[in-house]
Amino acid sequence: MKKNLIALLIIALVSVGLFAADPDPATFNITTTIGGVSNLKLGATTTTKPTTIAGFDDDVEEDNSAFEVDDNNYDDTNTVRSIFAYSNNRTGYTISLAAKAMKGTASSKYINYTVDAGGATVTTTSTDNYVDADDPVEKVTSLTGLTFSKIDIDITVDGTAYENAVNDTYTGTIKVTMTSP
Q1: DSSP per residue, 115-132
Q2: Among 54, 45, 47, residue whose Cα is nearest residue 152
Q3: Alpha-carbon distance 38 to 86, whole Å?
Q4: For residue 110, how many C-alpha atoms fall within 13 Å in the half-sphere facing its CB?
Q5: pLDDT tens track for 41-97
Q6: Nearest-angstrom CA–CA distance, 14 and 7
Q7: Is residue 93 within a helix (H) or strand (E), and if so which, with residue range?
Q8: Torsional sign, CA 95, 101, 102, 105
Q9: Integer angstrom CA distances of residue 179 from 81, 95, 98, 161
Q10: What's the CA gap between 167 and 104, in Å, rounded?
Q11: Count of CB atoms situated within 10 Å of the CB of 155
């Protein structure tokens, strides 16, 4: 009987080992946080649209120099700069345009002009105030990854105002702004 009892105990121990449940798998999470990045530059129209941030930083030379209106180009539409931008903001971005009339340094007289860029058009008025374009240069409502943009800026000077202007040095300003919601 002792032998039978020992045999039953051995069988019970072995069968418990044979039918034991597998342990739960060991796991861990991997996480990251991607911060928002965006940038805006004005550059030469001959520059190619970049496809990387390094290309944006290295290849797009910022050009905020004045565009010279003179007797040879005042009555033309001139492509004067390109807007270069990038963003990874999942809710998109908006690029806006505003301009101030060219104002004489000594005479305080004005020469107006029109600026076109992307979907925006603005015509200056004879004041010291910026005139905002009614529509954005570019409005992107959502992104699925890092996106790059290049948009040309064209200006057309009011030829009659230019031809009738008094001698002076005139300066106007074009302002490009990038915002994210």
Answers
A1: EEETTEEEE--SSSS-EE
A2: 45
A3: 5
A4: 14
A5: 999 999 999 999 999 999 999 999 999 999 999 999 999 999 999 999 999 999 999
A6: 11
A7: strand 93-104
A8: negative
A9: 20, 7, 14, 34
A10: 8
A11: 22
Amino acid at 11: I
Tokens for 117, please give them.
Answer: 């860029």
Q: Are 68 and 74 in contact (CB under 8 A)?
A: no
- What was the pLDDT predicted at 9? 53
- Separation between Cα atoms, residue 103 and residue 138, nearest integer Å: 28
- Between CA 81 and CA 10 the distance in angstroms is 89
For 112, the token pair is 């107006």
Q: Report d(CA 54, CA 70) in Å as an integer.
A: 37
Residue ranges of the alpha helices (H) in the chain?
2-18, 53-59, 159-163
Helices (H) and strands (E) in the chain, counts: 3, 10
Compute CA distances 173 → 60, 84, 97, 112, 115, whole Å: 21, 18, 11, 11, 11
Model's pTM, two decimal places? 0.84
- Here the tokens at position 53 are 């941030």
pLDDT band for position 5 (cuts 50, 70, 90): low
